[in-house]
Amino acid sequence: MIRRRTLLTTALAASAVIGLAACSEDGSDPEATGASDAGGGSEGGGPPALSGVTISEDLGAEPTVEFSAPLSISAADAEVVVPGDGATIAEGDTLIWRSLYVDASSGETLQSWWQGAPAGGLQVTADGVGQAAFDVFTTMTVGSRFAMAGWQQDQSGQARSLIQVADIDRIVEPLRAEGEPGDPSGDFPAVTLGENGAPALEGAPEGDPPSGTTREELIVGTGDTTREGDYLVMHYTGWSWADGKQFDSSWDRGAPFSFVQGSGKVIAGWDQNLLDLPVGSQVMLVVPPAEAYGTTEESQHELAGQTLIFVIDILDAAHRVD
């Protein structure tokens, strides 16, 4: 239900998968949150696409990607460049990685975490990324550097040939808020937690809602502090102030939600009020229409005109490079 740019489809096929960047026409502002099927080899039995690509192995530096452009990609391809020494990735894990994207037709770097682009990641499930991708990711380990070659549609709808190189930084855990109890005002409904940490409201809101977004800290985490430009991973549930009915929940989908903080891909009440929070925190946001989906005159969204209540667990905040 949260407003964000539509994830772009992919044309990758066969045996591994990765989130390839969604590139604008001028190659700027990619968003590394989609997922794409990839596989070794090529149609007609030719060499794999990455066989002609040399990728540096120094995990302490930005990867270098060398090949003779244009690189022909007749079938998607994937390989582990440097195996990691961390835990093996398992079903359901949510990954954080640092990546760069190179245009296979020109050799131009379109986006790089090492040059200030956001971090990225995904959740590893067969339903979410495809069975082929799932099979590849569950053989990798944390700390690995891997590469994938394939295609992604840009914002004009044109498929672009891309190479992605990524370093798997970590698995997000735990997948619920953990910390010390906060000190809520008592002006809003109390929150109870299920065995897995999923929140529920104790009754419907009463009285008039606040005129501006209000934040209350229910659990104060002990992790690093969120800041603008973070790749933020979170669980959330949303309710309508008018009747206290739930309208959306990442908990129900069994998958955390992620976005780049401050990039305008979510409602303003989130972009402006999830900063300066320790990872592990749980917050309640009460968001009026002006900072959610607008008035009914401004928006055709089904939640237009409504004040919304969200309870959000901050699970991870991957920073841009300093």
Overview of this protein structure:
The protein has four helices and 19 strands. The chain has about 325 residues and is mainly beta. The protein folds into two domains: about 160 residues, Chitinase A, domain 3; about 140 residues, Roll (Chitinase A, domain 3), CATH 3.10.50. Strands 11, 14, 15, 16, 17, 18 and 19 form a seven-stranded antiparallel β-sheet that branches. Strands 5, 6, 7, 8, 9 and 10 form a six-stranded antiparallel β-sheet that branches. Strands 1-2 form a two-stranded antiparallel ribbon. A hairpin with a 5-residue loop joins strand 12 and strand 13. The longest helix is centred in the middle third of the chain and has 7 residues. The chain is elongated, with a radius of gyration of 21 Å. The two termini are about 30 Å apart. The N terminus is likely disordered. One of its GO terms (molecular function) is peptidyl-prolyl cis-trans isomerase activity. Its EC number is 5.2.1.8. It comes from Brachybacterium fresconis.
